Amino acid sequence: MRLRRSIQLTRPHLVHLHLEHAELTFALASLFPGTWPAPVHLRTVYRTTPWKGCRILGRWVAARLAGGDAVAVSSAAARADYGLGARQKRDRAEVIPYGVEPSRVARLAGPRSPFRILFAGGMDQRAGADLLPAIFEKAQSRSGRKDVEVTLCGRGPLERRLRERLRLEVREWRFFFVRSIPHLVDTLFQYDAVLMPSRSEGLSLLPIQVLLARVPLIAARAPGLEDVVTSDYRLTAAIDDVDALADCLVTVLGQDLTFVGSALRARVARRFNITTMARSYEARYRTLAARREGGQG
Asked: 114 with 222: CB under 8 angstroms?
């Protein structure tokens, strides 16, 4: 296997594994004679639903790699990884949040017409795309506003059905479907609200970038978002709560909320800082290097 040969050739002090396919490859490589003793390994956990559809394999990998170290990008990801139930005891992964570059241009205060809404995610149930027609229909009816444009960015199995339902059920608003938006972070200031009715997120960069760009974020309280959106942020709702998400959208449609969540925005800027992330990884690498030199790796 290529990984095994690479380890034998380069003899690294540390192997940093990202995502499940890398963990599986590393675990399989450990089965071959001559590969072990292995270098110290560090896993970064991203998913809040790890090893979906193959939990048995995931538990085997977790047991095989239990002697290593792990960090997670969110609290939900750390809990999910710990819950795999490896036979060998292991510590819960420490959370090291992503570092995020803020948008170079922030949204300016003041009402605008047309009012522009952005949904940027998969056209699938995980992203809550199936909820969009009902949310928009209720918000249109309750707000009475007709000068609304919605950009839906992404692709997925629900796209065709979504186009049809929006055309039939939300007649007063205009909808634009795009596959991608180049340099999305630098276009966020053009929108008046971003909607995320997700049922699950690993750690999406979008809500962080939205808040830093001073754009109101409307979101479901999905696993993976709890480290970004705190309980006192007023524009959140329970997962699948279409009525509450529509009411949040009506609130934003009715008043300029550019400065909503200023305290949250400041906290997000501190927590998801690139320098902080780099220093956290440096500290972890140094700890692992010291452990290896001491014969504990």
From this structure: no
